[in-house]
Amino acid sequence: xxxxxxxxxxxxxxxxxxxxxxxxxxxxxxxxxxxxxxxxxxxxxxxxxxxxxxxxxxxxxxxxxxxxxxxxxxxxxxxxxxxxxxxxxxxxxxxxxxxxxxxxxxxxxxxxxxxxxxxxxxxxxxxxxxxxxxxxxxxxxxxxxxxxxxxxxxxxxxxxxxxxxxxxxxxxxxxxxxxxxxxxxxxxxxxxxxxxxxxxx
Length: 201
Ligand code: GTP
Ligand code: MG
Description:
The chain is α/β, with parallel strands linked by helices.
């Protein structure tokens, strides 16, 4: 798929305030700083479409970007950064869980996980939540450029072993780097396939 146009639509504090749910939609979720906004920029070939930052917590609302005038990419706020109060965390959870559960045009969620780290509690909890609610997702390992081939292979194997204990069939997985544009084609192919399903509905 070729990205011809990518434009920011709006930031919403609540799924009810998101754009009309008439176009297929794909969300990016993951720990703060994992590289959600950077990957959206890599996919859309824009440097600054989604705001990125070295400081965790840059993205705080549900951000919609309209692609090729007929589907949405959604940049969600990250979880798991240290400087956050209990109330803020509870608000985040409510905003995101409501969105994930109730957004009727959400076709797939890309769950981003830093390829350098072993399985972490918050990521495991999120994967479990998707599993128990039977929501479709694709795991995207990020920042692959930061590891040597060998270390990347080892790290992915550790993750695969963890997932094998949890899931009868392994969920789809994509390895990515926003810098090298690794994984971009695969993500777009997944979206393309699912867009066809939305059309067929
Ligand atoms: P929040 O909005 O805080 O949840 O973060 P985010 O997940 O959107 O992360 P963001 O895209 O802002 O990236 C965080 C930091 O990681 C930035 O300094 C990026 O430049 C860096 N980064 C993101 N993706 C990559 C990547 O693929 N490779 C490398 N080397 N750095 C990356
Ligand atoms: Mg962000």
